[in-house]
Amino acid sequence: MIDCSRRVFLKTALASAAVQRLAPGTRLWATSSGPQLSIMRYGSSPTEPDGIQEEAQRLTRAAIEALGGMERFIARGDVVWVKPNIAWSARPQQAATTNPDVVATVVKMCFGAGASEVHVSDNTCHKAQRTFPRSGIQQAAEAEGAEVTLVDKRKFKKMAIDGKVLKDWEIYVDMVEADKFINIPIVKHHSLCLATLGMKNLMGTIGGRRDQFHQDLPNTLSDLAAFIKPDLVVMDAIRVLTGNGPIGGRPADVSRKEVVAAGTDQVAIDAFGAGLLGHKPDEIGYIAEAAARGLGTADYASLSPVEQEI
Questions:
Q1: Whether pLDDT at 8 is above 50
Q2: Which of these, 49, 123, 150, 216, has the minimum number of CB atoms within 10 Å of its CB?
């Protein structure tokens, strides 16, 4: 969350400054009262479309309610930015993009908590004109009242990151001006960093030469995570991509885990996601680095997560 004075500053200063001198981590964590992590598992693997949709909806709602409900994170009148992974031109069954019903449920719960606007978008790798509808996210989110729009390249502005590696970078203005930011990654293998999870999903908030991030992912992703701290992370692990990521394409690389996790500690939730891919947190460079910087804990069990099978 960025407070009102910060939002006013952004709106007035962006027009005149080439590089914004914003302190790293201007977003504030959601209130610390209540659980920091929940893990919901489904008791079966439905195969019919209605059952698959119900699974995603029930897991997502249960995960957020276990933290205290969406009202813990969203206040009446809030403008909310929801950031799924919509990077690739793939169908939901390919597990390259976030489950559309997880996204739709988050949107619905935001409006139920009193949000005035909910925006859903991503700075995609493949053309967004293909990825948005093919992922199913556009249709599902719009059906719940969200505004799903392609990113406007003119809205990327350089801001001061003041990180270990990133001193400044192009960030999407609308995302940092939103009252609340919800990150909804999917758990996937990644050929360069072993796993793409929540902190990696934040790359969809930036512009510029994003390939430069891959030269030092542990530090660039930790710098970005220190600057853009989600109010809530909802991790889709209903289907996970276990190989040939981040794009995938082979049915054999998709595994049903039947899990949705939600939390306020983005390091902890990524550490949990790494385990679903068979990795220890310290094997994922950006998780280890973010934990070393104190951005969260890689020992997610220490948070006493709420765990339930439904």
A1: no
A2: 49
Query: Residue with structure tokens 């200063």?
Result: 13
Contact 239, 55 (CB under 8 A): no
How many Å apart are CA 203 and CA 222, to the nearest integer? 11
In 10 A of CB 286, how many CB atoms?
27
Give how far Cα 26 sits from Cα of 11, 13, 36, 128, 207, Å: 15, 15, 20, 29, 19
* pLDDT tens readout for residues 256-287: 999 999 999 999 999 999 999 999 999 999 99
CATH number of 4-309: 3.40.50.11440
Inter-residue contact 98 to 135 (CB < 8 Å) = yes
Label residue 252 exposed, middle or buried (CB < 10 Å: 0-12, 13-18, 19+): exposed
Distance CA 21, CA 94 (A): 41
